# Entry
Amino acid sequence: MRKLFLSSAILFATSSFADVSLYENDYWNTRIANTFNTPTYVGSMGGVNDEVSSVEINGTECILLSKDHTFKGSWLFISEDIPSLSSVGFNDITSSYVVFDGSNGCNESSIALMYYDANGKGGKFPIVPESNNPTGLGYFNDKASSLYVPNGMSVTLFKHGGLEGSCKKFEGNNAIINLEDYGFNDKTSSFAVNYYGNCDSSSGGGGGKVIH
# Structure
């Protein structure tokens, strides 16, 4: 596994062979963040908030830039180098981002999404391939009311942080799932993609697998 460096909520590295690099100026000038492991969530840009002007991407990586912290606000998916984010209307407005393997797509339909309201409405939180969030969801904790899971992915939702407590596993079929129908509305505190652990009464008070 490649080494990861964390400072002030932003991922930095010393090598020039990062999966994704973010720059303060156009044409890849003045690097301010590197990502060496995917998937990687950065919910706050800290001291370099609203300063990203260009993006460099290696391989099949995809980056989702968000206008506000913890993935609030508008999003932009990027799968290739962009010398100036002004060209796509996203210069100096990035406050959070997530990097993931974009082999199966680099767009909203290729990732899972949790929604604040039922029927895929309201604010949303990205769940990217091969990710998990055992440390919590920030403002989205206990707020998810519906879920979208694409084909080929499963998402397991847990009642407590750290992948603890009762859980529900949802197999994707490109449909919106209302969590109230499965007794899990406003109960999600962590998640895992393609989780192979137990998800039943022995893992903390009930749950189970839901096939869609």
About this structure: The domain at 111-210 is CATH 2.60.20.10 (Gamma-B Crystallin; domain 1).
